[in-house]
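dumping the sequnces here before i forget
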Amino acid sequence: MSNNRKKTILKVIILGDSGVGKTSLMQQFINGKFSQQYKATIGADFLPKDLTIDDKQVTMQIWDTAGQERFQSLGVAFYRGSDCCVLVYDVTNTKSFENVQSWRDEFLIQANIKDPDNFPFVVIGNKIDVEENKRLISSKKAQALCANLGNLPYFETSAKEAVNVEQAFDVVARNALQQEESLEFSDDYTDAVNIHVDGDNYGSCGC
Amino acid sequence: MSASSTYPPGKGQLLFTKSKVYIHVSSSKKDNVPGYLTIVRPFKDSTNRDLIVAFIPEADISADDKESLDFFDLYGLDGETFNFYGSSSLSSTSLSKQNKDSVQPQLPKVERFIDRPRLSSLASYAFGITISNLFSLQVRPKASNLWYGSILLYPRDSFEKMPALFFHDDECPGTKREQDLKSKKFDPFASNGVSQMYWGGDRFISVLKSYCVLENSPLEKGMILVNPSKEDMINFIPNVIDNPADVDPFKDVGQSVNQFFNNTKWKVLSSLATVSKFAKNSVEQVLVNDKVPQPIKNILKKPEVKVIGDEFDSANIYLAKWALAVQQEAEKSRKLIIGNSYYKDLISTELGDNFVELTPLEVSRAARLKPVSQIEWDLFFDHTKRLQVTVDEVKDRVFHGGLEESVRKEAWLFLLGVYPWDTSKEERKQLSETLLRNYEEYKQNWQLDLEHQRNTEYWKDQKVRIDKDVKRTDRELDIYKPEDDELDQDDSDDAEIKNKNLLVLRDILFSFNELNTNLGYVQGMTDLLSPLYYVFRDEALTFWSFTNFMEIMERNFVKDLSGMKLQMLTLNELVQFLLPKLYIHLEKCDSNNLFFFFRMLLVWFKRELSFDETMKLWEILWTNYYSSQFILFFALAILEKHSSIIMNNLHQFDQILKYMNDLGGNLDLEDLLIRAELLFLKFRQMVELIDRKNDSVGSGSLNRTGEKIPISDELRKLLSKETIIQKEEERTADTPFG
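..and the predicted 3d for all of it:
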């Protein structure tokens, strides 16, 4: 049998404050459904989805986590090996927006990301279906933050009305695939380096 | 055979009957339903496919019919002259061959008519099925005199199963006569059936064979297909594919091979799962496994099937789930037959032979009882409504059966310690008035202190959290259903809660915040609160019950999660102690952190069980009957039940997590409770045994090889009924929220 049957698995983590709509976004993307009856997420779970990105077959594993801060210390086990991280806030909730950066920082530390500057994040402002007067975070403000955090891709979505969800996750998938492929490459490369050269030169000959 | 020109009105012709066939409705003998298993030709012109296989309870039978049935049971097939005695445990070669070779069909020798059997009945246990609708039989021949042989009928048109039919040969005049005849003819050198015991089911199958084609499935022991279609043959009888006459089994299935596989892939996978006992890691390994029948391998090599394999690539999970369904089914029926001794076997194989056996008394006590009814509950109390039996007796009863819904409202207040056990009704009435007043005080604390509400950051933060989670608590239940105008309301955070019951939950949580200022609100608490309010529908009583419940559960919610970690570690040790093989496997898969139990332990399986089951599990746990941490044995029981599936099919952290997370809705509460109880008893016995050994060795705790036998403090605490209390640290100005 072919050895190549194992599909590429892209691991994607969704982070953000409690109640910003992480589970809803995941469900909308994977199952095309929205429910008023989601419960607060406890622990962590993932849903797989098969995708074709430019003729390449991949399985995207979307990991949904609990939003409450104290449960995050458990998430560490799941952060490892992620290929992309989605940071979600609620456009009607200022605090959830302010916390985007801490979610990113926390992730970089916990997931032990070697090259933080190039790790793909995608920022999502969710719940744009609300009335305009309830919206507290403007697109401009959000874009400024994303630019500031290293030109992170930014999407405004409504998981409830399926607005922009597909588009956001398309970028998530592409960036994750790129990350996964670059990791494969650098892993091979690192092995080669370790065999032939001592640790001293590590990193100095990356180009 | 003489034939009447017409059948008597409303009657059908009896082709076969066996008396003293039973349905075992419960594990209690007195609930057994005796009846006749019959094959009836309903109308004179009915074809063989229209024949009805029916079970008719004795209670449903008229005196006339009874006479006909009893006579037919004894003499209807004239057993003396026909060679039907081959055992029904048919050789693994094709049954159809035997069909062709068989001496003569088993036609009735006497003409008897009975009322045409009903296919289903609401009022009794009668059921029937036409042969055309009969998909397969699951035959469990009588293997010893200790229990009865049984047959299960599986209909074609639904997954609904009919109850197992047990052949009580020792009471059945027909079978006894046949056994006598058989022993007279006993030929010790006969090639078939020599070692088999003759039983009532044999005759049923040999007669059924006269009216339809029966095929053994070598993939599943005891499974016999009735008039199998080509597709069934491919799925269940790989030998058919080997047959050169059927070179291309797909040829006449239709043009679209894809469609064929879409329809049948589940069955193909199912067959694989059945084969999974041959230790396979993946579809690929099935291919290199010698024990897998060649035809299955051939199917898997087809390109169309490879696609399916890919589709199911993380598919071990699916296989495992299927294997679980299979296992559950198999166990259910086994349980019916041999009852609790099965668990004994199970545990002794699970834990090794050198283990002290559970005593029959202990095993029998593991049987689950009916929930406590209102009448039974009231009998626990005297005329002043003061408890007149011991608390232990009540707890024993609740632990082993749970409560009927109507009893919960009162009983939970005792179980949660709101009402002391030794109070009279009058005293409880006074107590509840005091509790109401006290609650009002806490409530007013925050209700009146508007300044506090507006200005304290902590309060505001808590309010947002509580609002958010209350809004997403059990909304599928009627009492928490969204109000009409709430449905199209937007999802922003300041959207008002409209449902009045949810508003009560919110007020209770605000008030709890006043009472336990250190802990405050943490996600998961709404899950703990909602069933309490559902039962009491009384704000103050719910509040005090919740407060007491949180006393036990606070360790789950402390900020550094140390209470949860300790429980997971204890469970981890318990797995090592009782399920070492599984533990080694989990270790290999990076899963020995048992993370998948986090949610289950945090809110006591609220998310995995149905609402009703959750309430039952909780009241059982509240008894602290064996251990204040019985929940860990319940978790262990899940692992124990699924261990072979996990070990055979799941090899990665994410696979195991997914499998465990998806068990929700698929946990058999009663079955797991029995296992949990037996595992606890086993554990206790092991600890006692080790303690005794350690004592006899003297100072050192040594086993045979001179190593220490460690029983950690955490494991030992599992034997205690005393609740473990862990409190949140005191909140200071620096304590972060969340």
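Chain B has 30 helices and ten strands.
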